Amino acid sequence: MQTTILDPSLTQTLAAAREPGLTLIIGNKNYSSWSMRPWVAMTAFGIPFQEVRVLLDQSDTATKIAEYSACGRVPVLLAGEITIWDSLAICEYLAEQFPDKHLWPQDVAARAMARCVCAEMHSGFAGLRTDMSMNIKAKLPGRGRTAAAQADIGRISEIWEECLSRFGHHQFLFGDFSIADAYFAPVVMRFRTYGVRLAPALNAYCERVQAHPAVARWITEALAETEVAARHDAELPD
Ligand SMILES: N[C@@H](CCC(=O)N[C@@H](CS)C(=O)NCC(=O)O)C(=O)O
User: Which of 76, 85, 84, 21 is nearest to 54 (CA)?
Assistant: First the structure.
């Protein structure tokens, strides 16, 4: 996989990104939880792609993202002439394009629940996202525990317990690694940064997610980043 930091003045960069094959536009690995999801899914399932990283919180971030999508957010997947600008839509597109890789669980009931928990993550947990934003490098134990974040931690624990006991056979949420685990990987990162205490079975799940080669690689690359996004490093609520 090739990584490019985009300079929009280089018009050939966009042309290169439109070459056949898949190009995933992401933000900083340290902060961009939405980027982490499809990146981890693609890496975990051995789907080849080129990576373009756009640095968040820079004066030209919006201009750079606009080169790819009017949505103004990352991740964005370029698949030839097709542009997909939302993490869940990207994961669905990949599952459809690579049916033999089984990105969703194969069992119909497990797959329905996997889609529910991803949709719940995608549209909810605003407390966790606002008050305990992803910052892989940071160590902020005990911080960010607003009532809303605490309620979200409770609901996520409930989801994980149910998935692991009903479908996961105490491995990943639905047994084999799936989009659902990629979807909750940024939550695992937050729980690590903010020192969230969990039941032993859920701690063990977090360990397994962190040890997954795709997640471990994202973490290593996040830790190696030197760029800072001021808004993401801003003071967090106690
Ligand atoms: N619902 C979108 C959310 C994407 C999103 O909010 N991305 C953030 C980065 S994690 C972003 O691009 N923010 C724009 C900015 O910070 O300038 C998705 O699932 O892809």
Answer: 76
* The two three-digit tokens of residue 204, written as one number: 């063990």
13-57 pLDDT, tens digit each: 555 566 579 999 999 999 999 999 999 999 999 999 999 999 999
**Closest by CA position to 213, among listed 187, 191, 181:** 181
The pLDDT tens digits of the residues spanning 152-183 come to 999 999 999 999 999 978 799 999 999 999 99
* Distance in Å, CA 232 to ligand 1 centroid: 12
Ligand 1: centre distance to CA 209 (Å): 22
How many other C-beta atoms can be found within 10 angstroms of the C-beta atom of residue 19? 11
- Closest ligand 1 atom to residue 27 Cα is 9
* Measured CA distances, 109 to 115, 120, 165, 174, 228 (Å): 10, 17, 14, 10, 42
Assess whether the previous peptide bond of 75 is cis (omega < 30° from 0). yes
pTM of the full structure? 0.92
Question: Which alpha helices (H) appear in the chain, and where do they start and end?
Answer: 11-17, 33-44, 61-66, 87-97, 108-123, 126-131, 147-163, 179-193, 200-211, 213-224
The finding on whether 38 has its CB within 6 A of some atom of ligand 1 is no
Residue among 139, 135, 163, 151 at smallest CA distance from 230: 135
Q: How far apart are CA 48 and CA 64, in angstroms?
A: 23
Phi-psi region of 48 (alpha: psi -120 to 50; beta: other; left: phi over 0): beta
Rounded to the nearest whole angstrom, what is the distance from the C-alpha of residue 108 to the centroid of ligand 1? 30
